[in-house]
């Protein structure tokens, strides 16, 4: 097969341009990335050999080699891991297809300046391509375990790369960087210096469980080094005692397992001793991944059995609502070749899951107790996911409710726990009031809030889609029911206020006719029309019946493909408004031609729907009616 030349996708080219012009100030990390990839490839080979007896590979000396050639100015990172087939090289290295990168490039287009771009690289990382920060040409030679032929990939990082099938290649992958000149202006270290490379490996890759060897170069400054030297301690961080490991080291492990370039928010260690022994090292990321709510996204912890990685993305170790947690679990007594299905059922795995869940939740509780910015950042990023646990994991509901915080009309620093809400409740208030909606602003402006605002009653402002679900599942907190301000009848008046009761009764009589007539007129839209106790300035609003689905929930079920009948709502009128009073008067005049009255009823309902962010059933007709009324007003 001849050498074929391919063009990078437009996006890939942009990314490479960035690398070449190296806006990212910490260029040393390219070595961490290449070593990380090599380490993954060794893990994969060992796993493949474990699962497939027919795979004829030698796994006795799996390792990573770094070879420096100061004369040719090259640095090579070589592994005898799984390798890649011709197609895989094209797919994995040739294109930048993974979704993280796609999101990265989206934002990159918006970030025009170098500082913005640097921030983005720090956020997303760019793996293999980071080599172009230090090199103006990269070559990769690889042979997939079990295959006869190898593949050579090469690129100057400009518009194109070449692919070529080669007869001879050692199994595994060798990546060679043709280094740019070491240059103080570009702040490039001399990556052909053994000292520099040793420092970088020690700093970023010490914990890698495979040996990273520096191959002596005759003629180079490694000439006095007869044997390859192993640069890393290979000690699994989770197996070392806490005071032996620095935060930086933990952070590098986090970056290796998560492919995130940023520091984690929190590191959580756990050592379980006794009959079933295991260690866990977990990380709470500082930022939610873009695919947090994508159904098929890859998640899970790395599962080791006695230092041997047996699964890269073991989901069974944590409940779905902790899917963002990264890290490693190393168990002593699991079988090396357990399958995913068996793991899901395994008693020990379930035990670990329970324990890890409690540990993560207690760490969050601690962050919260310290009133740190950490907790605020954590909840901002992951609160919406944790709330899934409120209905998904009843066993930990109380622990979750203790750390959950919500925006509220009364919270001083913007958020409150349910506990704090209860402590602030007014005398005679029995319920915890909340309102759901798309944004804080839309909720605060909604007519349903009027009476609560007028009486200074606190309302939780819930804006995550999941809020609709958990409030129903949880139902109450410390015996106080959770109640939507937009559902059912609301009675905020002090009990036994006789004057208010009498007033209401009188109005009930005055409006009885109108309410009955409206109910008939709007029968297709609403199931009842009544006078409101929740409005002060708005003429009308629509509310849901106490146990009915809200429009948001209905939409959610429909989006999930479930059929739900449309639920009719209730129209509430505010008898203190001239519009409502006038309507009643017009109704009582019993004119022949009721067209105008009918239209007014329709408009009133439309306004109520609009006020809560909904849409009148026939927007065009609604607009036409409004325009006619406006015109008439101008005459
Ligand atoms: P990431 O490592 O974040 O997935 P990279 O761009 O670094 O992104 O690598 C893309 C893919 O190329 C890897 O996921 C892996 O499948 C493959 N790859 C990279 N380096 C190696 C290697 N040394 N051996 C085998 N496969 C590799």
TrEMBL record:
GO CC terms in record: cytoplasm
Histidine kinase/HSP90-like ATPase domain: residues covered: 26-183
Residue ranges of the region described as C: 556-635
Main location (coarse class): cytoplasm
Ranges for region A: 1-340
Compartments, as annotated in UniProt: Cytoplasm
Assembly and oligomerization: Homodimer.
Name of the protein in question: Chaperone protein HtpG
Provenance organism: Streptomyces guryensis
Lineage summary: Bacteria, Bacillati, Actinomycetota, Actinomycetes, Kitasatosporales
